[in-house]
Structure formats: structure tokens, C-alpha cells
Design brief:
By secondary structure, this protein is of the alpha/beta class. It has 1 helix and 20 strands. The strands form 4 sheets. An 8-stranded mixed beta sheet has the order 2-5-8-13-16-18-19-20, with no helix packed on it. A 5-stranded parallel beta sheet has the order 1-4-7-12-15, with helices on one face. The chain is globular, with a radius of gyration of 20 Å.
Length: 177
């Protein structure tokens, strides 16, 4: 019985600790909407450059480099292990240590799949879906589904649940007989 009590007390202390950490983290952001969920293992550099709308969810093991500003619209879901960077370096060897800040803008209702990477200067339109592992090197239009490295459009997101998504998935090549 004492082990059960110790476990309950430990769980409560851990929950209280994470709640305080969460509240402190959100107070450090450039702006933070209501009902925002940031997993404890998310790494954010340049916290004052991160702006989150209402109901944003950022899952475990994500890295956000917000020195150049990252704006994430309401109801956007960022799956585990995503990386968003609004900073880069000069290509010239002599100036490579100089940081270049270029903002990222992500619209409302966007879904970033597991392991997606969004590079500096990218805008992702409302309702877009970024496939797992995609590397976004160009702007994404609203309600567009992109996949791959580099990310390329393969379809459009339906307006509602009664409509099926429009996909342009290449048919598999026929095997020789």
C-alpha cells in the first residue's frame, strides 16, 4: 500500500512540475493562443520569435528554431519529430558563421506529418497537409497535400468529410513477366 501512495505522490509532483514548466515556456513565447499543447520534449530556440494561434498542438521531439520568427495559425497540428527553422547561414565560406533570419508562416488548420522539415522563408497555406518526412523547400498553397524530398504536391484537401481527397499518385510500374 505504501508503494501505491508513493507512486501517486510522485506522479502528482511530476504533473505539477510539467504544468509549471509549460506555463513558464508559454510566457516566454512571442505570443501564445488559448488551449495550446506543447509536448515536454519540444526544443524551441528563439522563443520570443514563436507565435502560436489557438488550439495549436506541437508533439514530442520537435525542434523549432524561431530566431527569424515562426507564426503558426490556429488548429495546426505538428506531429512528432518535425523541424522548423527560420534561420540559416550565408553560403559564402567567409560569411558562413553569420546567421540569416527568414520567417516561416503556417496558416490555420495545417497538419505536418511526422518528421516533416520546413525551411526558412516558407509559407504554408490554410488547411494544407505536409506528409511524413517531407522537406518543404517551396511555399505550399492552401488545401494542398505535399510529400517527399523535396516536397511536391500530390493532391488537394477536401473541403469537408463528404468529399474525397484528390490525389495524383503515380501508378506503380509494371513488373516484367
Amino acid at each position: 500500500m505504501s508503494h501505491h501512495l508513493i507512486a501517486r505522490v510522485a506522479n502528482r509532483l511530476i504533473r505539477e512540475y510539467w504544468n509549471r514548466q509549460d506555463k513558464y515556456l508559454k510566457s516566454q513565447l512571442g505570443s501564445c493562443g488559448q488551449r495550446v499543447s506543447i509536448a515536454p520534449t519540444v526544443v524551441i530556440l528563439g522563443k520570443s520569435g514563436l507565435h502560436l494561434g489557438d488550439d495549436v498542438e506541437i508533439n514530442n521531439l520537435c525542434h523549432l528554431f524561431a530566431g527569424g520568427n515562426i507564426t503558426i495559425g490556429p488548429r495546426t497540428m505538428i506531429s512528432a519529430s518535425c523541424s522548423l527553422t527560420s534561420t540559416t547561414h550565408s553560403q559564402a565560406v567567409s560569411a558562413r558563421s553569420r546567421m540569416i533570419n527568414i520567417p516561416i508562416n503556417i496558416g490555420a488548420d495545417v497538419w505536418l506529418g511526422t518528421g516533416a522539415i520546413v525551411l526558412p522563408g516558407i509559407s504554408i497555406g490554410e488547411g494544407a497537409i505536409i506528409g511524413a518526412g517531407a522537406v518543404v523547400t517551396k511555399n505550399v498553397a492552401p488545401r494542398t497535400i505535399v510529400v517527399g524530398n523535396p516536397a511536391r504536391p500530390i493532391g488537394t484537401v477536401p473541403a469537408d468529410e463528404t468529399e474525397l481527397p484528390t490525389l495524383k499518385i503515380p501508378s506503380p510500374t509494371k513488373e516484367p513477366q
